[in-house]
């Protein structure tokens, strides 16, 4: 270990916790809203509770190396159970609380779980349902006793009872737990997180204390996080990001985590807490913005006017002021005024008044959305990482924000590109192994110790990493330049009028695309222009709509042309599909990802038409309706040519 | 089940109610036992709501007698019923639309407030402590009904299903020993109905509250009731456990119609 002296023994989470309990016993470690009032737990209280749970588990027969399933919403006692399990040298296995019983059975079996701490009756019922399939499961401990009065099963135990058992145990053998904590090594597995399993069965990722502590330390240094931060913990505990932000970083820097009252109250709780450090997927930021804009539309004309003024000012110079770039005095004054009148109160309504650092990740964020939050003065940044890397690979440094990059490699992380453009990473944050899957572990880490992320990307001139696609989807055009369908599709999907897009071009001369319009947005657009339409197919065939989408495509082409890597990927020809891509027809996965291969086979005739120079193509497609009936949709689709730009002319055209 | 159905606490004997020449109820007798869920069903205009209003003391029957907990009631008024621990909800939601959910549920605590209006106006001394106590109870109800997210929303802005839940909350806040629910599931979709059923069963189970329920939806009634009374044109045509009632030819006729 390269830690300075004195820090060396703080190399496991239980040791960090006990240290906080000594150094800052009265500082708030956690808050939870109960009966409408925020209840605070200090570090000393947390440590006390963790001890009780740990001793209670030991009393039940929990041994070093045993796995403890954790299932539920973000509740303090579930976080304590994670720490308690680690005190005993056990491995907490974080599970998604909204998974159905069957999916839970898989994880329980795979991780050979004997003990589980679950939130409430709902989860207990799932455990009882799959008990037969999981003979190893011996004890299920529940946090919330509501509705549990009639459950007499000895297999179940309330967390309250467990804690009182543990408190008694801790009193009679006060050295026991300290001894257990002393046995912990930084190289022990501290947690198991399951991959989402979009490709095959989920795999249990084993991360060590050291990996998460190093990642958390790196992140805290990078963003100068202190014990004074407040974070709202509302994303699933089984997700690597929550474990990093709400658990590892809080344990490392000693800040406060706040648990919302319930899933539906998150927005209110956010406003009441006013976190200083915040994470949300792009979807959440988008919903927030939509709510604001809708409410502004209902406001009086005067309010709308000031709002419009403030937004214009923010758009002009907000992001620059945030980045510390030179801005004229007059703009500064106008921004100050806007902030006083609109931006400040707006941030307050959203609960963003105190935010110092906010992150988003998980999906591509639209440039307009990203710019909006930065322009109103919220230091929103992007990061890149995966479960196998403790969600810690690249971070955007303050003041160096680029919309389409994920920033620079984080402290202690080495990133390099393979020949096919795949991103390889190495550092202390790498997984120890996949649980019981040496084959998968060997496949994902190469001989030099680099983890293969499966993502393709490249570094720009400033050393920022740009992610373009999944490596396996990336192909080549006949001209030899790179073709990244997802990258192009994502750009298209940022337009509100485009719902879905599928780009083609691998081993072709140029790029073409299928477009699905957004029925609501486009419908609204044409209605305001006095055009009537009868349904999706009719709307999609309207010349006005074709023109609208054409403009979108051409805008994308201009953007692509300005990027030397992507200039050849401009969309030459496109068509608007006559039906929405649908999971029921097998065109999308249940998580709404396009099944590329299936779509290209099903619509082979359309692809041929796109590449053959025809201007129209007839198509007839079988569809399945929601009630299970079969039907046919047929249409004559127009194929449009879009303007493309020469790489050097792009800047002026855009 | 843990809750034990106890003795008869409410007895209706030979109840007849008429408005001028219209006979709403004719010679109806039935009883309600402690801790049970007792449903009153029947087609439109069968006299179900009238029956509930008789129990509640809104209507005074011309004939018959009502015995509640061993005491024969005369000249019953709704507020007396409330004092005896009977709370109710209404078919057409009767909440204060402009007030928040918390305030609406707080009104259910009204009878339990001891301090006088001056203390309350000044929010001082005992009144303050009392209000905190009541607010705590209200929060427990909110937690129970899982409506934390709408705590501060004006009721008028809520969808119908949630308003119904708030109304149940107000009745619950009075900590009643008996609740009268007038079509708690009318106009709801399947999911809302399921939620409401669960809450009714939970209330009955956790607090032991006796529940008298009017409902149209036969499926719901048969699933959650202990015993069912069936009315048609103001007359009782059936009474018993759900299975018994379901197979009663008169009930089938009243619901499905017969060829005359």
What distinguishing features does this structure have?
heterodimer, A: 654 residues, alpha/beta, Rossmann fold, GMP Synthetase, Chain A, domain 3, 3 domains, five-stranded mixed beta sheet, 22 helices, 28 strands, globular, B: 260 residues, six-stranded mixed beta sheet, four-stranded antiparallel beta sheet, 10 helices, 38% helix, 25% strand
* Radius of gyration of chain A, in angstroms, nearest whole number: 27 Å
Coarse shape of chain A: globular
Q: Give the overall shape of chain B.
A: globular
CATH topology heading of the largest domain in chain A: Rossmann fold
CATH class of the domain at 8-85 and 176-256 in chain B: Alpha Beta
Account of the 3D structure:
The complex is a heterodimer of chains A (654) and B (260). With 654 residues, chain A is α/β, with parallel strands linked by helices. Chain A folds into 3 domains: 28-184 and 223-277, ANL, N-terminal domain (Rossmann fold); 283-350 and 361-370, no CATH class; 474-653, ANL, C-terminal domain (GMP Synthetase, Chain A, domain 3), CATH 3.30.300.30. Helices cover 40% and strands 21% of the residues of chain A. Chain A has 22 helices and 28 strands. Chain A has an 8-stranded mixed β-sheet, sandwiched between helices. In chain A, strands 12-13-14-15-16 form a 5-stranded mixed β-sheet, with helices on one face. A 5-stranded mixed β-sheet of chain A has the order 24-25-26-28-27, sandwiched between helices. In chain A, α1 packs across α2 and α12 packs across α14 (367-375). The longest helix of chain A has 23 residues, at 301-323. Chain A is globular, with a radius of gyration of 27 Å. The two termini of chain A are 52 Å apart. Chain B is of the alpha/beta class and 260 residues long. Chain B has a domain at 8-85 and 176-256: 3-Layer(aba) Sandwich (Rossmann fold). Chain B contains 10 helices and 10 strands. In chain B, the strands form 2 sheets. Chain B has a 6-stranded mixed β-sheet with strand order 6-7-8-3-9-10, sandwiched between helices. In chain B, α7 (190-207) links the parallel β7 and β8. In chain B, α5 packs across α6. Chain B is globular and about 60 Å long. The termini of chain B are far apart. The chains are: A alpha/beta (654), B alpha/beta (260). At the A-B interface, loops of A face α5 and α7 of B.
């Amino acid at each position: 270990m390269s830690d300075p002296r004195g820090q060396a023994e703080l190399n496991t989470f239980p040791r960090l916790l006990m240290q906080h309990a000594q150094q800052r016993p009265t500082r708030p470690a956690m808050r939870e809203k109960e009966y409408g009032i925020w209840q605070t737990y200090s570090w000393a209280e947390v440590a006390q509770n963790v001890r009780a749970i740990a001793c209670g588990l030991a009393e039940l027969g929990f041994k070093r190396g045993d796995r403890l399933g954790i299932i539920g919403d973000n509740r303090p006692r579930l976080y304590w159970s994670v720490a308690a399990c680690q005190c005993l040298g056990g491995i907490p296995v974080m599970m998604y609380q909204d998974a159905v019983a069957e999916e839970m059975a898989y994880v329980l079996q795979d991780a050979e779980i004997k003990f589980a701490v679950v939130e409430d009756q709902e989860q207990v019922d799932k455990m009882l349902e799959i008990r037969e399939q999981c003979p190893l499961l011996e004890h299920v401990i529940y946090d919330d006793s509501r509705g549990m009065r009639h459950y007499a099963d000895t297999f179940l135990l309330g967390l309250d009872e467990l804690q009182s058992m543990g408190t008694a145990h801790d009193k009679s053998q006060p050295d026991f737990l300290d001894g257990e904590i002393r046995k912990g090594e930084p190289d022990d597995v501290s947690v198991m997180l399951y991959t989402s399993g979009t490709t095959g069965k989920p795999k249990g990722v084993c991360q060590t204390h050291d990996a998460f502590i190093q990642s958390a330390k790196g992140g805290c240094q990078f963003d100068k996080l202190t014990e004074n931060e407040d974070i709202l913990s509302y994303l699933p505990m089984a997700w690597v990001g929550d474990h990093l932000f709400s658990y590892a970083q809080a344990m490392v820097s000693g800040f406060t985590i706040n648990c919302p009252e319930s899933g539906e109250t998150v927005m209110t709780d956010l406003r009441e807490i006013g976190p200083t450090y915040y994470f949300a997927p792009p979807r959440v930021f988008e919903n927030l913005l939509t709510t604001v804009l809708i409410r502004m539309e209902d406001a009086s004309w005067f309010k709308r006017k000031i709002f419009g003024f403030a937004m214009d000012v923010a758009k002009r110079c907000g992001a620059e002021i945030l980045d510390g770039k030179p801005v004229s005095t007059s703009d500064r004054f106008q921004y100050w005024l806007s902030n006083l009148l609109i931006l400040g109160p707006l941030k307050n309504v959203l609960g963003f008044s105190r935010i110092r650092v906010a992150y988003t990740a998980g999906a591509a964020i639209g440039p307009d959305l990203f710019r909006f939050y930065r322009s109103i003065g919220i230091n929103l940044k992007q990061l890149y990482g995966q479960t196998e890397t403790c969600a810690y690979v690249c971070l955007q440094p303050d003041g160096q924000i680029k919309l389409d990059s994920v920033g620079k490699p984080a402290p202690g992380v080495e990133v390099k590109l393979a020949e096919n453009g795949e991103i390889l990473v190495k550092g202390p944050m790498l997984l120890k192994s996949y649980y019981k899957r040496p084959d998968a572990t060997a496949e994902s880490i190469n001989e030099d110790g680099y983890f293969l992320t499966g993502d393709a990307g490249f570094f720009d001139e400033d050393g920022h990493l740009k992610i373009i696609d999944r490596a396996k989807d990336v192909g080549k055009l006949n001209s030899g330049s790179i073709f990244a369908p997802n990258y192009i599709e994502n750009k298209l999907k940022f337009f509100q009028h485009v719902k879905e897009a599928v780009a083609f071009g691998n081993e072709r001369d140029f790029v073409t695309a299928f477009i699905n319009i957004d029925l609501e947005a486009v419908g609204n657009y044409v209605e305001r222009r006095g055009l009537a339409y009868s349904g999706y197919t009719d709307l999609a065939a309207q010349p006005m709509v074709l023109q609208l989408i054409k403009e979108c495509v051409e805008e994308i082409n201009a953007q692509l042309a300005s990027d030397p890597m992507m200039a050849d990927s401009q969309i030459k020809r496109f068509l608007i599909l006559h039906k929405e891509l649908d999971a029921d027809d097998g065109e999308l996965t249940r998580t709404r990802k396009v099944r590329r291969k299936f779509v290209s086979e099903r619509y082979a005739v359309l692809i041929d038409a796109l590449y053959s120079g025809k201007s129209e193509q007839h198509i007839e497609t079988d569809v399945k309706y929601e009630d299970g009936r079969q039907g046919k949709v047929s249409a004559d689709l127009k194929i449009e040519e879009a303007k493309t730009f020469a790489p050097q002319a792009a800047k002026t055209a855009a | 089940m843990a809750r034990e159905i106890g003795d008869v606490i409410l007895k209706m004997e030979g109840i007849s109610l008429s408005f001028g020449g219209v006979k709403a109820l004719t010679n109806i007798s039935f009883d309600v036992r402690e801790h049970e869920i007792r449903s009153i069903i029947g087609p439109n205009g069968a006299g179900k709501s009238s029956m509930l209003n008789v129990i509640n003391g809104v209507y005074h029957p011309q004939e018959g007698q009502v015995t509640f907990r061993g005491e024969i009631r005369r000249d019953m008024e709704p507020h007396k019923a409330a004092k005896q621990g009977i709370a109710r909800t209404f078919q057409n939601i009767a909440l204060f639309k402009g007030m928040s959910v918390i305030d609406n549920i707080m009104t259910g605590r009204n009878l339990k407030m001891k301090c006088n209006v001056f203390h309350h106006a000044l929010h001082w001394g005992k009144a303050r402590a009392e209000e905190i106590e009541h607010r705590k109870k209200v929060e427990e109800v909110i937690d129970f009904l899982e409506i934390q997210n709408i705590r501060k929303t004006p009721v008028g802005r809520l969808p119908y299903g949630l308003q119904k839940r708030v109304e149940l909350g107000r009745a619950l806040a009075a900590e009643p020993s008996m609740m009268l629910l007038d079509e708690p599931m009318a106009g709801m979709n399947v999911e809302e109905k399921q939620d409401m059923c669960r809450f009714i069963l939970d209330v009955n189970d956790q607090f032991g509250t006796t529940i008298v329920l009017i409902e149209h939806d036969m499926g719901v009634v048969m699933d959650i009731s202990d015993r069912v009374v069936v009315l048609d044109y103001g007359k009782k045509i059936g009474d018993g456990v759900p299975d018994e009632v379901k197979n009663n030819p008169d009930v089938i006729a009243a619901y499905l119609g017969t060829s005359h």
